[in-house]
Amino acid sequence: MSYADNFSKMQKGFDMGQAIAEADRCLLCHDAPCSKGCPADTDPASFIKKLRFRNVTGAIRTIKTNNILGGACGVLCPTAELCEKECSATGIGQPIAIGKIQRFLVEHAHETGFEVVEKKNQRSEKVAIVGSGPAGLSCAAELAREGFPVTVFEARGEPGGVLRYGVVSYRFDMDFLAAEMADIKKLGVEFKCGSSIDSQNKAEDLLKNSYQAVFLAPGLWDAVRLQEKKDIKGLYGSVAYLEALRDGQLDAFAGKIENKTVAVIGGGSVAMDCIGAAIRLGAKDVYLVYRRSYTQMPAEEDEKIEALNEGIHFLLLNQPIDYVLGDDGGLKGLKLVRTALGDVDASGRRSPVNIEGSEWVLPADLVIEAIGNKADDQSPAWYPQVKLNEKKLIQVDPDTGKTSMDGIFAGGDIVRGPALVVNAVQDGKVAALAIKAYLSQKSEE
Ligand SMILES: Cc1cc2nc3c(=O)[nH]c(=O)nc-3n(C[C@H](O)[C@H](O)[C@H](O)COP(=O)(O)OP(=O)(O)OC[C@H]3O[C@@H](n4cnc5c(N)ncnc54)[C@H](O)[C@@H]3O)c2cc1C
Ligand code: SF4
Q: Domains of the chain (ranges plus CATH)?
């Protein structure tokens, strides 16, 4: 049996009738709070009002001229914590489904071939972008619209970053990504895939090789691991697991997971993608192992409820401490210790404290560690003059994305740590504006 059908498409969004009916519920607030709740400065009040008065193309233009990945954000933004949270503060019973309306409008543009974003000028200064995730794509599109020749260097075989190689396809599918990518390619952005900028000085050397500015957006692709025992059969990091699923290895993985017991360590959105995928690959039992309590899990409420409904076993207040191996060296189980909640720690949550003598073993055939991603240990060598913090994240001026090295800008997860698509989009926009100002100033010198 092939499990591909469980992964191929994301759920259908609103149609025109549903989108208009939802827009009709809007209270048309003066000084609309939703417009202040978007990290990428999208103006939902404006596009909802336009849709309500049947100005569909105007509504699409409002979204896409502000955010080239408006469709991706409509699908993936945790809206309950952003724009829709502000909407609910107006006292409206159920907040307007802003993300769903946004997604519909962008899908409608793609279906009808409505082209929104145009190139304005023609500039000669070339800009190099490292990484084709949301930050790199957003920066590339903004600069290309301004007429700059832009080249995006991407280590992997296809562009898209986490949108392509991370988020599971039943939440965000390839066709949707391809349509948004087409909007960017139409602007003339050049993509060099399979081109890793990852050796001594290589990122900084781009400035010597005919590029006048560089935007660094390589994201975080090194999975944080529980311990150094990485080569155990049956043990995976979330990056490798999700990337393999996105790279057409569904059936190969299903062979390993079908009717097996899978444990996923972690409590965030990445862990949720890992457990959801395991269920869809036919696992018998899927355990989510988390060292704190349910309310402390960073995953969104909707995701947690969906996981419970899918039959995931939540194993809370348990800290993994070791792996149990069989005679063949393969994984047999996960050794855990129960925890209790102690004092509030630096994260603002009560910290888990191991309960002495409460160790036990959860039998498991596969374990997936989804406990965070970090910057590549080697990355400082690629840009040695760029100032980093102790986590090897790039330090920038938040208003411009400027790094400590003249001509080099940065944004997205490599600056913020693990964040959201919409944050990366905004970083790309902010840096594009600053790069334009920097190059204009240079040309006057
Ligand atoms: C599994 C998963 C699920 C997520 N789900 C959501 C969600 O539902 N909603 C949401 O808002 N956010 C979600 N996020 C977070 C969001 O995807 C990230 O915050 C966002 O993608 C960061 O964008 P970025 O452009 O900084 O980096 P990335 O998307 O990581 O892209 C960086 C790109 O740079 C490339 N690269 C790396 N090193 C080099 C190099 N040396 N040379 C050339 N190229 C290089 C990488 O291959 C990659 O394509 C999720 C993250 C993960 C991991
Ligand atoms: S980009 Fe995301 S946060 Fe901003 S308005 Fe759209 S759905 Fe809401």
A: 9-112 (1.10.1060.10), 127-220+375-444 (3.50.50.60), 224-372 (3.50.50.60)
